[in-house]
Amino acid sequence: MLVIALSLYQAQVVPASNARAAFRHSQTVQNQLVEVRNAILRTSWSGDARPGPSR
After folding, report:
1. Which H helix or E strand runs over 42?
2. Is residue 54 assigned to a domain?
3. Contact at 8 Å (CB) between 49 and 43?
4. Residue 24: inside a domain
5. How many domains does the chain have?
6. What's the pLDDT tens digit per position in 31-44?
7. Residues 6+ apart with CB under 8 A from 42
8. What is the pLDDT of residues 9-27, one digit of tens each?
9. CB atoms < 10 A from the CB of 39, how many?
10. pLDDT confidence band for 3 (50 / 70 / 90)
């Protein structure tokens, strides 16, 4: 029974948890790329190569 329970957990709960973690990571990377794009555009418009506000 324990082996069956662990198998079911691994087959259903683990993939869902991994999917949530992958989605959060994807959102973080997307936000960072938007920040890089904005910094590049800001630099091209102003000619000022200083970094933007840091976190």
Report:
1. helix 2-46
2. no
3. yes
4. yes
5. 1
6. 999 999 998 998 88
7. 48, 52
8. 999 999 999 999 999 999 9
9. 14
10. very high
What pTM does this model have? 0.64
CA distance 23 to 53: 26
Residue keyed to tokens 């976190």:
55
Q: Are 39 and 51 in contact (CB under 8 A)?
A: yes
In a domain, 55, yes or no: no
Picking from 31, 49, 26, the residue whose alpha carbon sits closest to that of residue 39 is 49
Is residue 27 domain-resident? yes
Distance CA 41, CA 23 (A): 27
Tell me which residue range forms the domain holding 30: 2-48
What six digits make up the tokens of 32? 């960072």
User: Does residue 48 contact residue 36 with C-beta atoms inside 8 Å?
Assistant: no
Measuring CA to CA, which residue among 54, 38, 35 is closest to residue 46?
A: 38
